[in-house]
## 1
Amino acid sequence: MFTRFEKQIPKIVLAPSFSAVLIFVYAFMAWTVYIAFTKSTIMPMYKLNGVLQFGRLSRSPRWETAIENLFIFGILFIAISTVLGLLLAILLDQRIRSEGALRSIFLYPMALSFIVTGTAWKWILNPGTGIEAFVRSWGFSSFKFDWLVNPDFAIYTIVIAGVWQSAGFVMALFLAGLRSVNQEIIYAAMVDGISTRRIYTKIILPSMAPVFMSAVIVLSHLAIKSFDLVVALTGGGPGYQTDLPATFMYAMAFSRGDLGQAAASATVMLMTVVAIIVPYLYSELRSKNG
Amino acid sequence: MVDNKGLVGSVRFVEYLVPRVQRLGIYLALVVFAAYYLMPLFVMLTTSLKSLDEIRTGSFISLPRDIDFSSWKIAWSEACTGVKCNGLKPYMLNSFLIAIPAVAISTMVGALNGYTLSHWKFKGANLIFGMMLFGCFVPFQVILLPMAIVLGKLGVAGSISGLVLVHVVYGLGFTTLFFRNYFVTVSNEITRAAKIDGAGFFRIFYSIFLPLSAPIFVVTIIWQFTQIWNDFLFGVSFSQAGTQPVTVALNNIVNSTTGVKQYNVDMAAAILAALPTLLVYILAGKYFIRGLTAGAVKG
Amino acid sequence: MTDKILSIVGLNKKFGNVDVLLDINIELESGGFLVLVGPSGCGKSTLLNCLAGFEAINSGSIEIGGKDVENVSPKDRDIAMVFQSYALYPTMTVEKNITFGMEARGVKKEARDANLARASQILQIEPLLKRKPGQLSGGQRQRVAMGRALVRDPKLFLFDEPLSNLDAKLRVDMRTEIKKLHNRLNASIVYVTHDQIEALTLATKIVVMKDGLIQQIGTPDEIYNRPGNIFVADFMGSPPMNLIPVKAIPREKHTEIVIETRGEHKPIILKDLRLELLKSLNGKTEIILGLRPEHITNLENVTGQHKAVSECVVDVIEPVGSDIFVITELGGKNVTARLRSNAYVELGKSMKVVFDLNNASYFYPKTGIRYDF
């Protein structure tokens, strides 16, 4: 017999995870967003206070820097990682002899913590002991590469380290995508006498569109969440010049004791992610489940 | 079963298209990029084996004159991570104490969830899955504050168990996704045959699905272990002096403002902290890659 | 009453707002072989799933072995099912595949082994017992799937297009196996297929379906020789029944059937001597004549009284070994005639054929329904 219980088992099995998600993701999100509309400082206060936190946020020079950095870093990081990843994938796709080894080399950074990556690059980009010193030791005494400590350029060091960590992942995506292109279409094009370059630009790359999407989505997500890398590489400095929304939020929450600002900045981060991810997820789920 | 298109390619037509000279150029470009990628690892290694004097006077790229392992010893048991100076060892242990239970729990639960969502559809199953999936993408900044409060209320603030809880909860989305996408490739007719045969929910999972899920278990475990071991945000937000994971300890060592900067110790510590996940990558990299692309290349 | 192994009454099913099964009424007696046949999307698989209990129904009732199975889970309906993809448990040996269900049901080891031995022997899969599904050929997997069903000793076997995944030759062999099994065990079977040849060869009772509706229920002979409407006439039998628009002119003691030919050729005039037809006509003149290709044939082949001989122009010749199919144009349609292979035919020329109106069916042109007399 179909006991009532038997029919409910699937739901019962999912219930713990689903409740956990409901509470620890959605309820928490709601709480944070709520707090963003209050006057909370060290302790949370629950009386609603309109959008004053967001007003404060927009007037804060530190937040302004953080947002600016997010754009600079985000766009450069995504663009360069994508291009580099695609380039590496195309290069590796050429039936190279040591493909496996090379692939491992390009990908291993993803197995590392951002803290480790930050530590390594901090050392390399250190003007006194790293690349600058090295090039100078070759006689180019006026060579300057002090980006790491330069307020205007420090943000670009984060791009360098970030790209190093993540381009391999994009490469893996594109490689898988390149290899799933239908061979017969390529052969047909070859028979038709179409040039290599056009085969790439007119046939292969366009069919990579979904992979591009996936890569950009994941990279944007990484960019918005970037916290570990900044902490390890520059500590947000010099000063606040390499602050990103994530480090701003952390500082507000745990050092400054300004929960209202922390919540407001977290909310802005959330909205940004939602604006990117939700349409993507919606279209993915729809096409897969009908 | 699972489509095994992998990354090791089949026939590559481009061989015909690219003449010899260009081929040399390709190899050259790849070598340059490989250098860019290996350089930091190389630098970390060599720096960790140099004495401070040599570091100051030599270039960062040069090989060590005399191989000196003392910085490794310091990094392991004497480096200062704030108030304590016990090196990285206790924190490596913490990371294991956090990672192993968290990986085990989130993987098992994910397996059951994935199985349920792919073969026992009910009204709203898709919605539940979607909501869990979205949970993977949420920037954790929005849960930091309330989580800190709740952990305090549960009495596990700053404890290892608290961190295990955090990692399990936020790992569920991914593990469920991996298993669900894998089990979806198993035909529904098999479950139906088993139902007619009289098998119930758990027997079908145990006798039919578990035996065929070894590959996805490996992928999930490697992915989860790497994510949890490398985490910093949760570690730095929810731990205290004795319970910090190795990433937090590493950061403390490297960014400590007291004393002379011991770059060689920093580098040794970084390598030590990276060793477990690096080892996993070297030994089982194939599965790691599969895990990376499984989630994203859905289209 | 108790001889009915299956009784479906007034079954309706919707997917959302779409009707997928409408007013299904079917009965099957014990030991019968029921085939549900129809084009893709006609609802046959859905109906099978409703019988198995994998789909709920909106209204109506299903009784298996005299028991109402509403709200009864598949495992308690006393059924066994063979799936299109065989659905063997991939990580278990053939032996385990077959005994899995018995174990789940708590059958004792001796009984399990005995059932396994019996089924393996009947299906000749004894040498395969230790292998895994991945090591078996398509036909072998099929038999293992049937073995799994056999050991359940159910009241009703359900087959869901079990031969679709096999190549043509294997399909014919397995078809024979299934027929033999049916005879040997006197099993009651509900079988779904889109292949009308399978339906005609295997069934004791055929249900032709289209768009969720039953078009006709009958024995293979009834379905083949007395199709209930144009759809059934066209769908069943290969090549399909010729459906020729003709004029029916009532005369005193017979009906005159006038068939237009192409161009300036004279129309063919045939006489159908059946009085029942004359009576049913009721003043209608437009009518559809249905004749199977084998009923338009050489002079020598036809016996009986209702012969009508005429001449047709040969458009296409298709030799198929034992016969020759000749296509000609009648009533504006391509009509296929089936001649013995020794017939003399020449492309473009006329040939003499006999219309065996003994076996003719007539249909209303607008509704497609058969003139039933």
## 2
Amino acid sequence: MRRFVLWLALLCVFAPAQALTPEQALALSRGDTSSRIAALNAALDAPDDRTVSLIQALADDAVRVSGTAVFIVRDDKGFDPVSGAEVALPAAAEEVINNNQMRSELDAALAFVKLSSPDAEVRLAAVKTLAGEPDEAKLPAIQKAFAAEKVPAIKEALGDLRYALLLGSADRAKRLEAATALGDSGTPATKTLLLERLKTESDAQVTAALKGSLAAIESRLAWGERLGVVFTGVSLGSILLLVALGLAITYGLMGVINMAHGELMMIGAYATYVVQNIFRTHFPGAFDAYVIAAIPVSFLAAAAVGAVLERSVIRWLYGRPLETLLATWGISLILMQAVRNLFGAQNVPVENPAWLSGGWQVMSNLTLPYNRIAIIAFAMLVLAGVAALIAHTRLGLFVRGVTQNRKMAACMGVNTARVDTYAFALGSGIAGLAGCALSQVGNVGPDLGQSYIVDSFMVVVLGGVGQLAGTVYAALGLGVLNKLLEGWQGAVLAKIMVLVFIVIFIQKRPQGIFAMKGRSAEA
Amino acid sequence: MQRRFALKLTTAAMAAAGMLPLSALAADTIKVGVLHSLSGTMAISESVLKDTVLMMIADQNAKGGLLGKKLEAVVVDPASNWPLFAEKARQLITQDKVAVTFGCWTSVSRKSVLPVFEELNSLLFYPVQYEGEELSKNVFYTGAAPNQQAIPAVEYLMSKEGGGAKRWVLLGTDYVYPRTTNKILRAFLKSKGVDEKDIVETYTPFGHADYQTIVADIKKFSAGGKTAVVSTINGDSNVPFYKELGNAGLKAKDVPVVAFSVGEEELRGVDTKPLVGHLAAWNYFMSIKSPANTEFIKKWSDYAKANNVPGHKDKPLTNDPMEATYIGFNMWVQAVKKAGTTDVDKVITAMGGQTFPAPSGITSKMDEKNHHLWKSVFIGEIRADGQFNVVWKTPGPVRAQPWSPFIPENKGKKDEPVIAKK
């Protein structure tokens, strides 16, 4: 903030600032969009700091109008934009509403003012904003800024911007220079510019240069697109892996056809919602950390429900798959209705914390959303945890033992009933973790589980029942396959094609990708 | 003795609330059928319309009823089951002998009941925006036809103020309404000189949750020129779509998305942060300031509180289909008064040309011929609180075109119901 004020002051020293008048303030805030834009452009001619703060306030949606009086509202207090003094805010004052056109003009105006900021980062951000909407009227100012710029990165960005504006120049030589130079840029915005120009260009030499530059940019952008497809595939695969991993234990290892698996995920998602609300009311300062706290809570909540389920219903039905199927399906309905009664039938809002919103811009046309990256990492962690648990712990040993030969394990003194409960609770808990992850990308509602139950069975069956590794391959394979087909044929057909593929695959290889090897004593 | 008294008391109370069709009272009441799903997938949207009709009936009875008789609601639950709609409609008309029915939401449910209403010559008020291509003597359409929602929205996006979009992504859920609307829009865009290669049409299955590929495609497509997205995505698939859009860095001012199925009720229970600035086109917004709207909102809030309408008792919300129900009911009352009877044919004649001060701030008129309302179109921007800022509206009410001129097969179709000769 202090920096902002400082360069505003600097600005005032260099340019004979023109003071903001009440009429100007009103013209900026009221009227139709075109007259407001005209007022904005007029105000940009050597603005004083009051004008800039009014524009800033307009961009922040913090301006109200009552009659002919304009107010800047900050922290529920009214300020007069002309004098800057605090004034009483009339209750009837109406908020100034900006449409998208006005908003981009305001952003461009602010960026234009910030071009002369002493802070390099502010300047770079300003150049980037201006590059989004090139306006030829600003060319002289940008030429000047380009000449004065010292930081190489900003100078380059300004140079690109300058060329972008020169592309519309009447001088053929300048156009040619710009068309050639823009080939080095790699942003989709430049591609748009070149395409636009190509439509109206009459000169053959410039047209050739434009086409050459376009080809260069497109080949650069193609890499971003390819990587994008791979990433979306891996991301979908990691979600499939998370939803199927719990089932790989309850169905894959224990043989329980658990139709309530989806509802266990839903419980995990609702647990996340509850944790979010607790953080919002009790620890608003640490709100962004709620997801971390929600991970163990969703695990425990779903695991507890799973354990109760196993003790009360499923354990009487081992070895009777049809009855298990019906009983768990009934349980899924009961769980959904219970959630409807507790939280209502409507979806509940789960907010992304700030560090999971937005994305990491890897290339100019490839942005990887943080929530997707986090889910991939989370899926890997859960997978590693489960693998370690099954392979290296005493519980894992018991689970493997009981799965392979229940009677022999019992003879060796393993309490098989308890191992069953633990294993089922573990599978349920992992479903809860999946629910926690899903709450960050989709809807949280009573029907959440329904949309994933088919997918999760698909992954487990395709991967081979009883195999964790198979589940991993199947999840990632299906994810990437689905995304490749979607890019090619659209979402509706892609879904059908994936189902057809699975049907054919299971026909040819009923045991899935990996078959259980060795002596599985129990069929 | 005591128990019998209590029993009587409850029956009386229930009858007073208009919940129970009592045969003893039936002789001197006018029955109003309510045919909205109260269970199943559509319950979220439709049940509030049932409450709107009940509110209007209670209101009319408080004013002394209609033609000297009390109104009585007959509520049935077609349970989001399309064939059941037709059965329940038949039951309302033949058994309960309702004078009028308010009902249906999805186009497929309307198509299911239409033959019943035509066969038994009864009256249906349909309050939801739809794809047009239909006109029946027995139905009054109080929701928008495509030229009262979709086409003005696209015109706005084409205008300088709306961003001057040159390329179009028509994105929808795969069923009748989006497919027909997009067919009309495509023809409209072509008539405005938009090139075939500047339009893409994409559909997703119901309940689609992974919009990564689609958003990446939109991003790629938008590099070719100023792009706008017209979304007919249905229901809660909207949330993952907007979330993905926000995370991929596509802002509303770069690539605006205009939605035809996202309203106040749909935004309840949604984290609105990624949606702010995107657009919706409707004929009514709760945020519109007009005396009629203030009255409508107050009536609804009071009713919702007094009757414990779930969700609305804490946070009353009104939306476009509710307004359409409200206008339709009031017009029906006016038409019955004008006709002096509830006889279907006389009421239909009296309906033409009825006017009513709509909460959207205009005087809404039932067209003399085509059974559709004249409506103003508003473009609203989503605000962080789940309400809308109106950024644009049509200069005046627009006449409905149920047969879109942009579908070639509609040429020569009459703009009024054709009554088959017997």
## 3
Amino acid sequence: MLESIFRELILDHYRRPKNKGALEDPTVTVSMRNPLCGDEIELMLGIEDDRVAEVRFRGQGCSISQASASMMTEALAGRSLDDALSLERRFLDLMHGDDGAKADRGLGDLRALQGVAKLPVRIKCALLGWNALDEAVRAYRKSGSGVMGERLEFADMTADVPEAASPPPEFDPATHREELPE
Amino acid sequence: MSDGIQTAGGAGAMAAVEAGRTAPLDTASLRRRFPVLEQQIQNHRLVYLDSAASSQKPDVVIDTVRDYYRRDHANVHRGAHTLAVRATDRYEEARRRMARFAGAGRADEIVFTRSTTESINLVAGAWGSANLGPGDVVLVTEMEHHSNLVPWQLACEASGAAIGAVQMTDQGELDLDDLDRRLAEGRVRLVATAHVSNALGTLHPVEEIARRARAAGARYLIDGAQAAPQMPFDVRAIGCDFYAFSGHKMCGPTGIGVLWARKELLDAMPPYQGGGEMIEEVRVERSTYARVPYRFEAGTPHIAGAIGLATAADFLDEVGRDRIHAHEQRMAALALARLADEFPQIRLHGPDPATPRAGVVSFTLADIHPHDLATILDHEGVAVRAGHHCCQPLMRRLGVAATARASFYLYNDVDDLDALVRGLHRAEEIFGVG
């Protein structure tokens, strides 16, 4: 069972991802994070004539999230946006264990991820990059270009500490020795 | 030990008492007290190494909660009938039990909440609204659980106070010099730290922090979620002002937590939530509030949870919290040595292995992501946690996105460590490392 999930092809994409990096002038950039596990994907699309002309991603996370994103970018290059969304639908089918999707050669390397369907808690890992794609196409169709999804960062924890003023009154624990009421 | 003269017999007797207090646990018998552990996961014996997230429940706690519902349940307080009196008596007895458990001087210093998180939110909301303002500082640490961080961020946003974080050393311990610097620098009104780090197992010197906070005129809140399950503590001996802990990590039910606070601080705090139970007299325009601790227990409380928690306290004290603490330290030391020995590519986080720590071992193995490790281990029946452990600032400080965490409790022994090691070798095999 484990071997059917962590296949060599998946580990290969995890360790040597395709299209990893940044585009100089992306049409759309979408950042996605899975808040439960911290996996992150930043997807950049260069779109020309409603086609994915260029695609890059950056990210960090488990083998499934990163391999899925890498495989997705490979499958996306050159596709029309409609075609990209149709690929996304077929990949979702694959994650739901659909036999038609398992046999679909159009999914290419992505079919190696079919074992993930047996691990419900890990499906969201495989979908992270695809969620970014969905968001990117939606953003492009709405406004033509843009940057979506700010990175979630905590506020500055080392803010300047202001001047001292009067401290709260002194409390002496030695005077605090009452017995338990029974 | 005091510096008085000890006879040889006296010292021997003391040593015997000390040895008894920390005698090894009979983990095999203890395990039989936890029905959930008698099952197979993926055709392997369940090896539960996730007690730092939530412990399993012994038979006595499960039975107490069941029996309460079968025999004694009614709403508490103000009821005139027999069951109402019985439920109220048991609920208030649970409050006295938890006061003794925490070393509190008075039962009315114990507020029942939902969890450690709610206890801290209660203080941040009620104490914070009355005591924090622009120019004030709340001091947390880089190692805090989000539940001892985000409530203070909210309180600071609402009040205009600033938040600062005490740094940790590269060994995963609090930098007390940095604490001193920050206490000297500004108007620190409150210091909030964990007693034991959930992600690294570090035991913080809370008495020392309390002393320094008090000297600087600051209140001190301790997040005791990881300490309460596994070590004796005495809030008065520590010298803190607030102490928060949860039931579900210490063999008790979920949904019940405790806030201990000094009576005079509780007396001066405004209500946290409004509703039944927390009032004295209600008119349409305004109300007067009940005395503490009832002022902070709006609505029908988790009666069964409180009663079950008291039973969990009995259970832990029967086993012996000194022994549990010693057992966790032994298991952590064994695990650290074994993992370092077997896995050249492992990175162990947290204090130096020679430093005592709680039974928590946080690690990363080669380039295998912790979530992948957890999936593989689960297939071997081994339950560990993977992720940021609700400590994102700490993960940033360690320079990792996530770690795997194995936590050992009173029912875990060397067999469980063996299972972890086997599972990790399996992960190495699948990922082709090692």
